[in-house]
Amino acid sequence: MQQGIIKRLIEEKWYGFISLDSGKDIFFHASEMQGGYDSFKWLQEWMEVEFEIVDGKNWQKKAVNVNFNGSASSENIED
Q1: pTM across the whole model
Q2: pLDDT tens digits along 16-74
């Protein structure tokens, strides 16, 4: 798992960008989060997250299995 920081969220379209240590940003979609759309609602910019990087459309990299820095999932978020 890699670590990064949420740089930007586009809530109305359910996606965002994670800032990597290298200075590059990587795309992620709410459907690729552990906990899915419910977890996306709890994200805030500058929050630390863990994720895996895979090939996406047109050979662009994307983040999957995005999770709140190993500490949260949909099971331990109270409504």
Answers
A1: 0.81
A2: 999 999 999 999 999 999 999 998 999 999 999 999 999 988 878 999 999 985 444 33
Chain position carrying tokens 């890699």: 2
Report d(CA 38, CA 4) in Å as an integer: 20
Place of tokens 């459309």: 57
How far apart, in whole angstroms, are the C-alpha atoms of residue 77 and residue 71? 10
Please provide the DSSP assignment of 16-50 as one string.
Answer: EEEE-TTS-EEEEEGGGBTTHHHHHTT--TT-EEE
Residues 6+ positions from 31 with CB-CB distance below 8 Å: 14, 37
Q: Which residues pair with residue 49 across a beta bridge?
A: 4
